[in-house]
């Protein structure tokens, strides 16, 4: 039900499994089909922003029906992602938490605060500092 509290990835996973089973759609929900459906929905989501230029956070000047449409397309992406993960035997919640930990290791606060550069920039800077001439010999930092 819309507005229901306590939505979890697991509850969405179960609802999608039930939705497919009731319609005898398990045979269509193969990994490849779900991936293509997911990409299609990402396209529909992108269309909402297409040609608008940058939009303000919170979308305060959007009409209610535009925001509702946005919610629908975001949901389609999420639901197909949840279903794809399930069909592939991936625990999406666990995988996402693990990925967050990996991200934190790749992007330590002390190196990246206030910078949106890719992590390869920091490893490259580190390599350069390991191979560069001793301090004071004219080797400048690359960032
Ligand atoms: N074989 C299918 C078809 C649909 N859905 C579910 C997941 C999505 O949340 C939604 C997608 O439905 P549509 O393909 O009809 O796409 P839209 O809802 O975006 O409609 P439209 O393409 O008309 O804008 O329905 C599904 O699980 N499996």
**How big a fraction of the residues is strand?**
under 5%
CATH superfamily of the largest domain: MazG-like
Find the structural class using helix and strand composition.
mainly alpha
CATH structural architecture of the largest domain: Orthogonal Bundle
| Overall pLDDT level | 89
Q: In sequence order, what are the helices and strands, one letter per element?
A: HHHHHH
Spatial separation of the terminal alpha carbons: 50 Å
Low-confidence stretches: 135-143
Helix content class = 55-70%
Taken together, the total number of domains comes to 2
The distinct bound ligands, ions and cofactors come out as: 2'-deoxycytidine-5'-triphosphate
Question: What is the C-level CATH assignment of the largest domain?
Answer: Mainly Alpha
Q: Outline, from the CA principal axes?
A: extended
Query: How many distinct helices?
Result: 6
Work out the radius of gyration. 22 Å
Largest sheet at a glance?
A: none
CATH topology value of the largest domain:
Helix Hairpins
**What's the total number of strands?**
0
